[in-house]
Design brief:
84% helix; 4 helices; 0% strand; 103 residues
Length: 103
């Protein structure tokens, strides 16, 4: 049986490897495509509208929009993580109670 410390190290290594992504280094092409998208045009309109309606600078409006989208992303990441944790807890509980119920 693998010792606890080794298991933890293996698990941590697996988690880190799972997070590795192949980074696309074609920044110029990606940036150009993103900046020419209709989504950016829509965001630009939203920045103008927010700046005018709130009487703030365009910079402040852009920051508010980006920060709001980032917060939404964080909330959903947390939600998905908690759902996964709850599912794992449920599976572990089911596995622990399963053999006892079979005897």
């Amino acid at each position: 049986m693998i010792e606890n410390q080794e298991s933890i190290q293996l698990i941590n290594t697996a988690i880190i490897k799972g997070k590795e992504k192949k980074i696309d280094t074609t920044y110029e092409d990606r940036l150009s495509k993103a900046c020419e998208s209709t989504a950016i045009k829509a965001i630009s309109g939203a920045i103008s509208q927010l700046a005018e309606s709130e009487k703030i600078s365009y910079d402040q409006a852009a920051i508010q929009i980006v920060e709001t989208i980032k917060e939404l992303d964080r909330v959903w990441n947390d939600y998905v993580l908690m759902e996964g944790i709850n599912n794992i807890k449920r599976m572990l509980k089911d596995n622990q109670s399963g053999p006892q119920n079979r005897h």
